[in-house]
Amino acid sequence: MTKRSSAPAATKAGIRPLNPAEEAAWRALARAILVVPRTLEAELIEAHGLNLAEYSVLMNLSEHPDRAMRMSELADAVALSVSGLTRVVERLSRQGLVTRVRCETDARGQLAHLTDAGFATLEAAYPRHLEGVRRHVMDHLVDVDLAKFADAVGNMAAAEPGPPARRSAGRPPSVPAKRAGR
Amino acid sequence: MTKRSSAPAATKAGIRPLNPAEEAAWRALARAILVVPRTLEAELIEAHGLNLAEYSVLMNLSEHPDRAMRMSELADAVALSVSGLTRVVERLSRQGLVTRVRCETDARGQLAHLTDAGFATLEAAYPRHLEGVRRHVMDHLVDVDLAKFADAVGNMAAAEPGPPARRSAGRPPSVPAKRAGR
DNA sequence: GTACGCTGCTTGCGCAAGCAAACATATCAA
DNA sequence: TTGATATGTTTGCTTGCGCAAGCAGCGTAC
Question: FRET label pair with B4: which of A10, A164, B44, B181, CA 20 to 30 Å apart?
Answer without folding.
Answer: A164
